[in-house]
Amino acid sequence: MKRSSWGFGQIVLLSLHVSLTTAFSDSILQILPENSGSSPHHRHRHRKIPRDDNLYCDSWRFVVEANDVGPWARIPSRCVAFVQDYVTNDRYRADSEAVADASLEFAKTVKVSGNGKDAWVFDIDETLLSNVPYYAVHGFGSETFDENSFDEWVDLAEAPALPASLRLYKELEQLGFKISLLTGRTEFQRSATSKNLDYAGYSNWERLILRGPSDHGKPATVYKSERRKELEDEGYVIHGSSGDQWSDLNGFAVAERSFKLPNPLYYIA
């Protein structure tokens, strides 16, 4: 899901672009096998994480995902290595696959009417697209979010797909669901977002809904609830919803079933 803040000069952007396209050039996020040592990101995995930090950070990630922590701005400094290890290795992919499997299991129980109104709503950032390449050069969530630099990353339109989500997306299409994309990105990012989705392998969405001028300053829960209500008012039945933030899923006009993807990098209210 999209946060809001950034900045960056052209020289820094060029450096960011070169480093990201070199290390993360594929259109689908590459998660390293546990026994692979070929990547510099994997070598960081073997930086020793103290046992007490590992236990603390694993518990911190659990309460974050359960939404027990409440609003938070940055990951704890002692958890940078832990979060880096999590989002660049098998555990993140396995957790995402488990969510996709549960989503698909539910989707197969839905009696799709065939009238074009059976809907599934997806968030985009950290749900369909991964911004791990961006956070890899911005402290894996340990730095204060900068909207300008993130906007420049979005403009590159090179965020890879989350493999589990891409699989789920394609299978929902085959089951007959109409897919709407509901993101916290703004209208001026429509072109870059569409380009990135195409690059990552997504297509045939029914709606791509972005924040307009009237949505400025609205909490994500309110904004997304209002947009879901508009879909319902048009006759859509929202059977499922997928997002990495609770604000993607909660509020009103909620889906019949909502599915939370893992994200220990940031929080959006």
Description:
With 269 residues, the chain is α/β, with parallel strands linked by helices. Helices cover 44% and strands 11% of the residues. The chain contains eleven helices and five strands; from the N terminus they run αααααβαααβαβαβαβ. Strands 3-2-1-4-5 form a five-stranded parallel sheet, sandwiched between helices. Helix 11 links the parallel strand 4 (237-243) and strand 5 (257-260). Helix 5 (90-107) packs parallel to helix 8 (163-175). The longest helix has 18 residues, at 90-107. It comes from Coffea arabica.
Quick structural summary:
With 269 residues, this protein is α/β, with parallel strands linked by helices. 44% of the residues lie in helices and 11% in strands.
